[in-house]
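A quick aside before the break. I want you to see a complete sequence-to-structure record at least once, exactly as it would be stored in a machine-readable document. Don't worry about memorizing anything.
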Amino acid sequence: MIELKNICKSFGNKDNRITVLDDLSICIDKGEMIAVMGKSGSGKTTLLNILAGIDFPDSGEYVFDGEIVKLNNAASGIRFRRNRIGVIVQHFALINDLTVSENIEVGLYESDYTSGQKRKAIKDTLKDLGIEDLKDKYPSKLSGGEKQRVAIGRAIVGRPKLLLCDEPTGALDSETEKEILKIFKRLNQMGATIVIVTHDKDVADICNRTIVLEKH
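That is the input. The structure line, written in tokens, reads:
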């Protein structure tokens, strides 16, 4: 499903250039659940951002579903992610002025869904995640675990092929983490390909395999 060939990425100016990814090549098969681990500064989040089309490599080739990905600005990245990729971040990134249902609907931004299809997708997602009773609440009234379920809902409402997760359990207590990991496992069993950046061995242990990045 995904092939990265000789990906390089650096930050800074020519006098103070920091290499984060250096000649990285990896393959991820459809239906895999992958953990990405490594020390801080090893490029884990940068890798996730490149996979999502949020950031772009300096050189190398990114192949998604058999097609070479060529992106160079935010607009092209949004078009690339649409209906393909869902992104989950550690601190939820919910919009405080929107209800749970409205936050999930954000995941359908610029989708080609009709109004009726959006309503059904949101309703189905609320049901799948067991948060139907929270649909009219605002983020300030939710627990950490409930916020993460909403963030997951926003990422999966469009039924993307690929789910990218950046430390998705880092802000959760151990019991809530277990519940969230069960959701990821179930989504994977339903066919989603999942890449999880984590420092947590318990998270890595539920994955099919682990990719460890070295700091340069």
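Two observations worth writing down. The mean pLDDT is 89. DSSP finds seven helices and nine strands in the chain. We'll return to this after the break.
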